[in-house]
Amino acid sequence: MTVLEQPGSSRHTSALPGPPPDWRPRVDPAPLLPDAEPYRLLGTDAARGLDAGLLKRLYAELVRGRRYNTQATALTRQGRLAVYPSSTGQEACQVAAALALEDRDWLFPSYRDTLAAVARGLDPVQALTLLRGDWHTGYDPHEHRIAPLCTPLATQLPHAVGLAHAARLKGDDVVALALVGDGGTSEGDFHEALNFAAVWQAPVVFLVQNNGFAISVPLAKQTAAPSLAHKAVGYGMPGRLVDGNDTPALHEVLTEAVRRARRGGGPTLIEAVTYRIEAHTNADDATRYRTDAEVETWRAHDPIALMERELTARGLLTDEFAAATRDGAERLAADLRERMNQDPVLDPMDLFTHVYAQKTSQLRDQAAQLRAELDAEQLPAQEARP
Ligand SMILES: Cc1ncc(C[n+]2csc(CCOP(=O)(O)OP(=O)(O)O)c2C)c(N)n1
Ligand SMILES: [Mg+2]
């Protein structure tokens, strides 16, 4: 018997079947839709009302951040750092993310977000330990409430949701802010994290830094969505689209989203439209997949230059302030240079520490093998001693 032949359905009427019973949208999608174009403050009338102290603080952090990026890249050339995914051009996202959070909140960074961690107060050398290949994370995530810099794409997102949801269940006043790239939005973890976050109304904010590329893959090959911010609607959370090089605009949107999450309003997805000025890492040649002309158009929209225009228009970029900002950035770079040039003392056996609370049998075997090899290397050296 088919559905059409079921008892009661045999009465033929000429009327077309009506809609499914009781159907209506579960939430009104209109308020969840993102901004029609990237939200901006710099260069608009609204910028005139921005607090001078905040603008100067953001600017000083941007200048420090740029200097940190150039110094870290130089360290890769000197063989002192294995790899550095530079955030040059994306400093506005990094600084605004760090400053939007309270100390009690948590930051969940990706490999490109060392600068956000440093702007949040992490020791600049500790922030590079993983990228030097010295140690799993290099810092205590609990000390600054910064999760480990995450290399597997988007895996930090479900972690952020889990932490935020758990905090809410425990009654802790904690918001999690997770950073992810445009490429990371194609991962299953992105979908699972956003879905759970919205269903649970977890106090979490997702900041997608759309820098145009996932290594050599441009955004057009990554997604057919109108924008990455539009994905928010499908999960039932608001989406925001922001100029990712406009630091005060980002700071405002992120701060609002963090506040909303804190008062139980649930998650927000923010897409920051920005650009990766340097190659993916020092191991990549970006000239193979993009033109210099494209890079130049983004250099003209540099986050530091945008801020300088605003500060100058407001008479805030005095010679004294500019010099003090430059000096602060140089001190940061000199300290980084000096400490990264010291050879770290490492115990190869630490490879096996902190991987699992209880070592698996494979790890125990591998640890024993390494121990034996290290001991064998020691023997000739000991025998050579008088
Ligand atoms: C699960 C996973 N798949 C693939 C990679 C290799 N990989 C490293 S970076 C990257 C591109 C990521 O691009 P995006 O998310 O846009 O971040 P961006 O590097 O631009 O900051 C890829 C594919 C990875 N690290 N993890
Ligand atoms: Mg990208």
How is this fold's topology laid out?
Blueprint: H1 52-77, H2 91-100, E1 106-108, H3 114-119, H4 124-132, H5 141-144, H6 156-170, E2 176-181, H7 188-200, E3 204-210, E4 213-214, E5 217-218, H8 231-235, E6 239-243, H9 247-262, E7 268-273, H10 292-299, H11 303-313, H12 319-340, H13 361-384
Parallel strand pairs: 1-2, 2-3, 3-7, 6-7
Antiparallel strand pairs: 4-5
Helix pairs in contact: 1-2, 1-11, 1-12, 2-9, 6-7
The structure holds thiamine diphosphate and magnesium ion.
* Strand order of the biggest β-sheet: 1-2-3-7-6
What helical percentage do the residues reach?
A: 40-55%
Shape: globular
Percent strand equals 5-15%
Would you identify the CATH architecture of the largest domain? 3-Layer(aba) Sandwich
Number of helices: 13
What is the CATH fold-level name of the largest domain? Rossmann fold
Distance between the termini: 96 Å
Total count of domains: 2
Average pLDDT reading: 94
Radius of gyration: 25 Å
**Uncertain runs:** none
The CATH class of the largest domain is Alpha Beta
| SS class | alpha/beta
Question: How many beta-strand elements?
Answer: 7
Cofactor: thiamine diphosphate
Keywords: Oxidoreductase, Pyruvate, Thiamine pyrophosphate
Domain Dehydrogenase E1 component: 71-343
Pfam families: E1_dh
Structure description:
It comes from Streptomyces gilvosporeus. Residues 1-30 are annotated as: Disordered. InterPro entries: Alpha-ketoacid_DH_E1_comp (IPR050771), DH_E1 (IPR001017), PdhA/BkdA (IPR017596), THDP-binding (IPR029061). Keywords: Oxidoreductase, Pyruvate, Thiamine pyrophosphate. The chain has 13 helices and seven strands. It has 386 residues and is of the alpha/beta class. It folds into two domains: 30-340, Thiamin diphosphate (ThDP)-binding fold, Pyr/PP domains (Rossmann fold); 348-380. Helix 1 (52-77) crosses helix 2, helix 2 (91-100) packs parallel to helix 9 and helix 6 (156-170) packs parallel to helix 7 (188-200). It starts with 51 loop residues before the first helix and ends with a helix. The site of magnesium ion has 6 residues, from strand 4. Magnesium ion (MG) binds next to strand 4.
